[in-house]
TrEMBL record:
SUPFAM superfamilies: PLP-dependent transferases. This is Aminotransferase, class III. GO terms for biological process: biotin biosynthetic process. Belongs to the class-III pyridoxal-phosphate-dependent aminotransferase family. CDD domains: OAT_like. It comes from the Archaea. InterPro entries: Aminotrans_3, Aminotrans_3_PPA_site, PyrdxlP-dep_Trfase, PyrdxlP-dep_Trfase_major, PyrdxlP-dep_Trfase_small. The keyword Nucleotide-binding does not apply. It comes from Candidatus Nitrosarchaeum limnium BG20. The keyword Glycoprotein does not apply. Keywords: Aminotransferase, Pyridoxal phosphate, Transferase. Pfam families: Aminotran_3 (PF00202).
Length: 356
């Protein structure tokens, strides 16, 4: 049957048809021919508990009988309120939660919050965004400008706003003449050099713990903490993108606590709802939030809002998802498995060496 769907990141000429998923349970997807496929990418790194988890389905079903969607523009809803409370509880340093419906939008909100913060407090020259090479923060225009991967986005280069991109240490791609440690120092020194000279730097944006879509690159120990310290020293906002790495994906609930680098703005997505309904959140500290307060005529409020912001179905499944993290001690389990996996990987490395 002819399909009218245009698929993401896909050269459609190469594809006559796509495997059609009709059912999913646990880690398995079933296609329309009855084949079972292992969901090895956790449905784009967002599924936490596997598919058709009864508790998550029940949360959606229960909420769907009350309200399915109501606007957050001057209204609120119980699941979104509860979720904000739950997120603030697990997010040291954060003060308020701003909802959106996907990671790219949540990053756009972070940029707007950060830039407007400086405007709100009268520091209007602070307009530049600094970031790391090979970062990825989504596919919308602001996110493309900040997480610029040339192969993906060079067609739009002329329309993207300028950012300052800092080289990033990668254990497997160390430039000639450097040791891994030397190169880390080089990158950190470069950041400090720019911070100390350019008064227009408003914020530093990076993925938290590791770069993912731009080529999996786990940051060296202490790298993120050093950037965080520099941001504090030079009074520059730190925005951490936890969308792909938070909620246990790298072994801790939040990478920013693991990396001892409390940001001014933290961004969550993907696993927030266990991978069941699209939702993302941009969290800001009190300093940022307070700068937006004023009289209506001051026009300091944040001009951003999506139709489905704070959707109650998504929020209720996110609340249930967070309950399951507690119920099953997920982070503790991941840490236990991490050790086991690390040992196996070491054994495998030694075995490969012997073979060669
Ligand atoms: C680190 C990071 N930030 C932002 C995004 C964008 O999220 P979304 O695909 O929900 O727009 C992604 C998506 O993969 C990501 O990995």
């Amino acid at each position: 049957m002819k399909s009218f769907v245009w698929h993401p990141n896909t050269q459609m000429k190469e594809w006559d048809s796509f495997t059609k998923i009709v059912k999913a349970k646990g880690m398995w997807l079933t296609d329309s021919d009855g084949n079972n496929l292992l969901d090895g990418v956790a449905s784009m790194w967002c599924n936490v508990w596997g598919h058709s988890k009864p508790e998550l389905i029940n949360a959606i079903t229960k909420q769907s009988k009350k309200t399915q969607h109501t606007s957050m523009f001057n209204l609120t809803n119980e699941p979104a309120e509860d979720l904000a409370t739950n997120l603030i509880k697990i997010s040291p340093g954060m003060h308020k939660v701003f909802y959106s419906d996907n990671g790219s939008s949540a990053m756009e909100i972070a940029f707007k919050m950060g830039l407007q913060y400086w405007n709100n407090i009268g520091e209007k020259k602070k307009t530049k965004i600094m970031t790391l090479e090979n970062g990825y923060h989504g596919d919308t225009f602001g996110s493309m400008a900040v997480g610029y991967i040339p192969e993906f986005f060079n067609k739009f280069k002329r329309q993207l706003f300028a950012t300052i991109q800092i080289p990033v240490p990668n254990k497997y791609r160390i430039p000639k003449g450097f040791s891994y440690q030397d190169y880390q120092n080089f990158c950190i020194d470069k950041i400090e050099d720019i911070f100390s000279k350019d008064e227009k730097i408003a914020m530093f944006v990076m993925e938290s713990g590791a770069q993912v879509a731009g080529g999996v690159n786990i940051f060296p120990e202490g790298f993120q903490k050093k950037i965080s310290k520099l941001c504090k020293k030079y009074n520059i906002l730190l925005v951490l993108d936890e969308i792909a790495t938070g909620f246990g994906r790298l072994g801790s609930m939040l990478q920013y606590t693991e990396q001892k680098s409390i940001p001014d703005i933290a961004v969550y997505g993907k696993m927030l709802t266990g991978g069941y309904i699209t939702m993302a959140a941009t969290l800001a500290n009190k300093k940022i939030y307070d700068s937006f307060l004023g009289e209506f005529d001051d026009w300091k409020h944040l001009f951003h809002g999506h139709t489905f912001t704070g959707n109650p179905l998504a929020a209720s499944v996110a609340n249930e998802n967070l309950k399951l993290y507690e119920k099953y001690s997920l982070i503790k389990k991941i840490k236990k498995h991490q050790k086991y996996l690390r040992n196996i990987m070491k054994e495998y490395q030694n075995w490969k060496r012997l073979e060669m």
